[in-house]
Amino acid sequence: MKLSRFFYTTLRETPSDATMKSHIYLMRGGYIKPLSTGIYSMLPMGLRVLRKIEAIIRKEMNGIGGLEVDTPIVQTAELWTESGRYQAIGEELLRFKDRNNHSMVLAMTHEEAMTDMVRYVLSSYKQLPFMLYQFKTKYRDEARARGGLIRVREFLMKDAYSFHATSEDLDAHYQEQYDAYLRIFKAVGINPVVVQSDTGIMGGKIAHEFMLDTPAGEDYLILCKKCGYQANREIAEFKREPYQGNAEAALEKVATPNSESIEDVSAFLKVPKESTAKCVFFDLDGKLITAVVPGHLDVSETKLRNLLKAKILAPAENSLIEKCGMVPGFASPIGAKNTRVILDNALEDSYDLVIGANEKGFHALHANPKRDFGTFETADIAEASALCKCPRCGNPLTETRGIELGNIFKLGTKFTESMNAKFLTTEGKSEPAIMGCYGIGVGRLMASVAENSHDDFGPIWPKSIAPFHVEIVPIARDTELMEVSDRLEKELTEAGFEVLVDDREERPGVKFKDADLWGIPVRIAIGKKGLAAGQVEWKFRSEKDFEMADINQVLAKVQNFYGN
Known about the structure:
The chain is built from 17 helices and 31 strands. By secondary structure, it is α+β, with helices and mostly antiparallel strands.
C-alpha cells in the first residue's frame, strides 16, 4: 500500500483535551477522529488495528463453541421493561420515541435482545448448552467521557452469552471463557490482573474483571502479593480488626473546635485514626441512611447500594440529617432518631472510640456502639485500602489502578426468568435457562494496548495487531530508491505480508516521526549509501537503534520475525 493512496493524517501537536498516552497517540497517529464528546470516527489506520483485535477474539470465541449472531442496537422499551432494567437504569440509557410514538432505547448492552432471540428458539434441554456472541456498537450516555477510547459514549463491544441447563454446566463454561480471555489478552501483549468485581446493572452473583495494571487507570484494585487475592476496590473484602481500648471508660464530651474531619480530630486529640468512627449520610427515597465506618476507611457506596438494593443512593442534605437529631461534621448515632444506622463489621466489637457528639464543636470519647448507639445493624460496607489486611492470609494488601479490558458474569436466571426464556427438562418441567455473559470492549482494548506499549514517540503495536507488518521508507523520492522499494513491496506482499510504503516527497525526519506514530513493528529504510553496498536499514519499532541488512535477505528476515 502506497501512502500516497492511503487516507491518513498525523498531528504534530498534542490535542488539548488528551492527557492519557493512548489518547494522545491515537489522535496524533490518525487512528481516530472525535465527532462529539465520547464519540469517535475510526480512520483506516485505526480500523486495521481494530479488525485484527476482532479476529483474535473471534478465533477464541469460535474455539470454545461460540456461534456468531447480530442483534439490533435500537430496541423497544417493552423488551427492557420485561427484564426490569428500563426502570432500574438511570440516564445512561438513552430513551426516545419513534415516529409512531413508541418508546425505544439505544442499547448499552444486549442481554434483553439475546434473551429474546433465545426464547424464540429454545424449547428443550436437548438444545442446551450453547453460546452466542456478536460484535456490536452500543451506546451509553456516559456523563464522564474521558481518555479517548477508554471511556466513551458509543463503543464497539464483543458480547457473548451462554445458556445452560445446570449451574455446573455454567461453571464449566465460565472457566472456558476465563481461559479464552487470558489467551486473547496474551495475544495482544497484555498480562491482565483478574479481579472479583461488582455485578452492577448486569445482575447475577459472580463476576470477574480483566484489568490492565496502569497508573492511568480509572478503577482501583486491591491485591495481596502473598496469596494472590485480587478484587476491585469497590467490593474487595478485608480482615476486620476492631479497635478495643478501655471497655469501662464512660462516654465523655470534649471540645474539638474547628475539627470536622477525621484528620483534624485525630490531630487535635492526638489519637490514631483507627480509634475514630465517622458517619456518612445518604438519602434513600427520603429516608436517612447513616453509614458508620472506622475513621481511617471510607464507605463503599457499591457495597452499601447492593446491601440496600438501591437504584440510586444520593448524599443526604444537611436538613435531613438535622431532622434526625444529628449535627453534620460532628455527628454520631448517639441519640439519633428516624434513621437506619448501618455499622461496618469492624465496629461491632469495637469500643473506646472517638465519634461526633451531635453538638457543633464537640466530639465524644470512649464511645461503645453496643452500649451507646441504640438500634443498629452491621454489614461489610467499608472500602478496602492498602491500610487493610488480606481476608485470606492476613498479610498487608496493596492498592493499584487499572483499566477494565473485559468482564465475565454468572447471570443465573435474572433475565431468562423475567423474560420467560425456558426449556422443558427431562422430567417435562419448564425451567428458565441459566445464563452467563462475557464482554470485551474492542476499542478500549485497542487503546489499552497503546497505553501499555508505547515510548516517547508513539505506540509500539505487537505484531499480532499492528496496522501493517512492514513499513518501507525510501529516504528520497529517487527513481532507483523507488524501484527497489517497489520490488521489496511486491516481494513481501506476495509472501502474505501487509506493507506500507512511505512514497511521499518529505524529509526523512518527517517520515520517521510518522513511522513511530504508526508503530509498525518493522521499518526498512532505503538510502543511496546503503543501497550502493546492497544494504538497507532494518529497525524494529521496539528498539532504539537500527542495523544494516542485506537487501536480498529482507524477505527471510521478515519471515523469521513473524514466524512464517
